[in-house]
Structure formats: C-alpha cells, structure tokens
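Bug #2210: token dump truncated for PaaI family thioesterase?
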Amino acid sequence: MSDKPVSVPTHAHGPFQELVGYETLTEGDRPYLRLPVRRDLLNPHGVLHGGVSLTLLDAIGGRSLVGQLVPATGQRILSSVTVTLTTDFMLGVRDGVLFATGSPDHIGKTVAYVSVELRHNAMDGPLVARGLGTYRVYTRSLVSPV
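Reproduced locally. Full output below:
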C-alpha cells in the first residue's frame, strides 16, 4: 500500500484528537489513523514520545470496533472503553508520517480484543509499535458533548 490511500475523514474523537492532531480515516470499510510527526511530539531524546504511540494505538483499537457486530446479540458496537493496552515499541522515529491500524481478534458480549499496529511512512511501512487491547464494548453510544 502507498502512504496516500484513498480515504475519507470519519468519526472525530473530540478535543484530545484535535490536540494531538491525528486524522481518523477509512480505506474501504477499514478505519485507520494518520499523524504527521511534529517537533512538539518528540521526547527529550529527539524521537517520538511513547505516549503519542500509545494514544494512536488506543484510539484505533476502539475505533476499529465501532460498527462491528456483537455475535451473541447481532447488535452493532457504538462505543468502547479501554480496559487494558499492552504495547511493544520497536522503532524510534524523528519525522515522517505515522499510520495506526487495528484488527479485532475476538468480540464477545461485553469485551473485545484488538491487535493494533503503528507504522512509519506507509500503511505497510516499518513497524514502530504494536499492541493488544482489551475493550469494554457498548451497543449504545457513550458520546456526549464536550
């Protein structure tokens, strides 16, 4: 895949998304996040702060669940809340563009498990970080005005 997939902005995550500056996009029916690396996202060592990686992995994990069916009920997931997120950091980056993707591994009645990845400069670029998230899922929206 190239670093410029055909995509459409979707599903805003609120003020924190605006602060960090990532975009929520889709390719086909698969959501992904895109974030250009900026100086204000770097740690004192001059590489991307780990919290930025965690933010992107967490956000795409939850976003990848929205619209999925809960097998036991046939209802669609409208919201999720993170229970745990385990992360491995592989590559320090100083510039470029980050792409985060998530793939649900298992969806139960109330809990789902999602594998997440963060890649550098392309959707299939070098692996920056990966993780496994556990999410509490809801068939009603928890979104409220901020």
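Output looks complete on our side. The chain has a mean pLDDT of 91. Marking as cannot-reproduce; reopen if the truncation happens again.
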